[in-house]
Amino acid sequence: MKTLLYYFTGTGNSLAVAKGICSRLGDCELVPIASAVRTPGPVVPEAGRVGIVSPLYFFGLPSLVADFAGRLDLSRVPYVFSVMTMGGSGGSAALRQLDGILNDGAGKRGLDAGFSVRMPGNYVMMYGSMGERTIAKILQKADRRVEEIADKVNRGVRGKPSWSPFSSLIHGLMYQKFIRGVHEADRKFTVDDRCTSCKTCAGVCPVENIRIVEGRPTWLHHCEQCMACIQLCPTKAIQAGPKTEGRERYRHPGIDVKSLEEQAGRGE
Ligand SMILES: Cc1cc2nc3c(=O)[nH]c(=O)nc-3n(C[C@H](O)[C@H](O)[C@H](O)COP(=O)(O)O)c2cc1C
Ligand code: SF4
Ligand code: SF4
Questions:
Q1: Residue 99, pLDDT above cutoff 70
Q2: How far is Cα 227 from Cα 51, in angstroms, rounded to an integer?
Q3: Ligand 1 pocket: which of 58, 63, 251 to mutate (most atoms <8 Å of CB)?
Q4: Which residue among 54, 133, 143, 203 is least enclosed by CB atoms within 10 Å?
Q5: How many angstroms separate the CA atoms of 153 and 185, rounded?
Q6: What does pTM read for this prediction?
Q7: Max Cα distance, the chain (Å)
Q8: Domains along the chain?
Q9: pLDDT tens for residues 25-60?
């Protein structure tokens, strides 16, 4: 059975999870949402199974993923699932949000199953990367979870995302505020003299929100806040206020810069 797995990623966690699931499903194709959104109009996938893998942002979906979900018509797809990757908790609120968008959308067809996987947190605006050993432990546990999820998908296990009053409250309080300011939040980003004009930041940005002007990045204010530019800059030259200066950077150790560049249709 053919599976189409749509993914969005900033620092590689969701891509690593999507790859892990895809490799266990047989005939499976990975499709970057960042590239798929460029084609206008409804998206009507032809597949026996469709999955959506995304990071969790403030107990909700990245803006791009929410917009893409609104264009998906899954009425002819027999099995639809989603996997949220997250640093801590709150995946159920985003899965419910996605289920609602799909149900209200063109296909009037929501999720059959929703899952969450705990991964290393990447929100450098609030915290730095954990140490290598802690990351390795989290990723080991995540691998087992990915195996469990792929097994459930293979067996066609169904179950609506659970409802948690705590997650719904946080979603209501924090997510709406985050989404209102998300595209303009790059106004906080600055670049310092450590910049070597390597252009990695522009290459890994999934939404072409960075233009290199006179060798330095400038931000175009349609940011998704995925953190890729800050996290992937090899010289730590990008900051978002004074606090990010001393924080360790994070990228999923199994995902290279080229794979992140390919998400936005670059890197060939
Ligand atoms: C803007 C932003 C908001 C986030 N909010 C949450 C959150 O509410 N709860 C959580 O557990 N993790 C949160 N995270 C962490 C990510 O969901 C997590 O690290 C994810 O696996 C990153 O996936 P990626 O590497 O595919 O981008 C947030 C990260 C970002 C960038
Ligand atoms: S990734 Fe860093 S060093 Fe490279 S161009 Fe961007 S800011 Fe400069
Ligand atoms: S500008 Fe940076 S944080 Fe914003 S979407 Fe691009 S890579 Fe992500």
A1: yes
A2: 23
A3: 58
A4: 133
A5: 36
A6: 0.97
A7: 54
A8: 3-174 (3.40.50.360), 185-263 (3.30.70.20)
A9: 999 999 999 999 998 999 999 999 999 999 999 999
